[in-house]
Amino acid sequence: MKYFLSFLIFIYLPRPAIAQDEKKNAMELRSTVLDPMSLQKLLSEKFHAVKMTKSEKQRSNHPLLLLNFNWSLADNKTAFTFFGLHVDSVYVFQNEKSQFCTFLILRIPPRAFEHLATEWGYPENTAKEEYLSDSFDFLFWEKDQFQIFINRHRLSRDTKDKYIVQIFNMHYREIMDFERIE
User: 133 versus 35: which is more confidently predicted?
Assistant: First the structure.
């Protein structure tokens, strides 16, 4: 019994430590996504160009089915955080004018929305009470030259606290994927 308990402790204790180390080594995207020069550098170092048709996105149940993106991570070795929260996926759309839309897919617990309000102020489209009670369809901010949308990740099985954060400095019409599904 003693050895069995030691084995269980050995198996389960190192995992949280590894997760903490991964979080310490993760790249924080808070300022990078709001700076075109930093974002361009990140794209050249960690991403590769990609082209997916809307039909391919539909077959793969891609979270950005209705949105354009042309950059995805080159590998899954780099961990990212946004305001200290682990980012599950990162995609970027870059147009010909070197304008960007960064898509971050992540879990945002309710307590983190207060931190966003401290950093960015309250969203322009939602009353403070709705924002803090998590009773909104989407959130919208304007920050410098960027616009920021946060909406629920509706294609996820667990949509309770999973969101897509879109940070962009272009017309939203360019971000939308109007391609017909064949």
Answer: 35
Q: For residue 39, what are its two tokens?
A: 């974002």
pLDDT of residue 4: 37
For the chain, give percent helix, strand, coil, nearest 5. Answer: 35, 30, 35
Domain span holding position 168: 27-175
Between strands 85-94 and 162-168, the pairing is: unpaired
Q: What's the residue count for the chain?
A: 182
Is 119 strand, coil or helix?
A: helix
**Confidence class of residue 16 from pLDDT cuts 50, 70 and 90?**
very low
* 137 vs 12, higher pLDDT: 137
- Within a domain: 115: yes
Report how far apart, in Å, the C-alpha atoms of 93 and of each of 146, 166, 182 are.
Answer: 14, 10, 23
Residue 17 lies in a domain: no
Four-point Cα dihedral 137, 149, 69, 92, nearest 10: -140
pTM of the model: 0.82
* Helix residue ranges per DSSP H, the chain: 2-12, 14-25, 36-46, 54-59, 110-120, 128-132, 172-175
> How many structural domains comprise the chain?
1
